[in-house]
Amino acid sequence: MLLKSKNGQWLQLRALRPTDFANLSHYLQHLSPASKSRFGPHAFDEAGVAQHYQDPYHVGYVAIELETGKIVAYAAVVWGYLKSDAARLESYGVAVFRDTDATYAPSVADEWQNQGLGSRLFLFVCAEMKNAGRKRLILWGGVQNTNALALAYYRKLGFCYLGSFEYNGLNDDMILDLR
Ligand SMILES: CC(C)(COP(=O)(O)OP(=O)(O)OC[C@H]1O[C@@H](n2cnc3c(N)ncnc32)[C@H](O)[C@@H]1OP(=O)(O)O)[C@@H](O)C(=O)NCCC(=O)NCCS
Question: What's the gap in Å between 67 CA and the centre of ligand 1?
Answer without folding.
Answer: 24
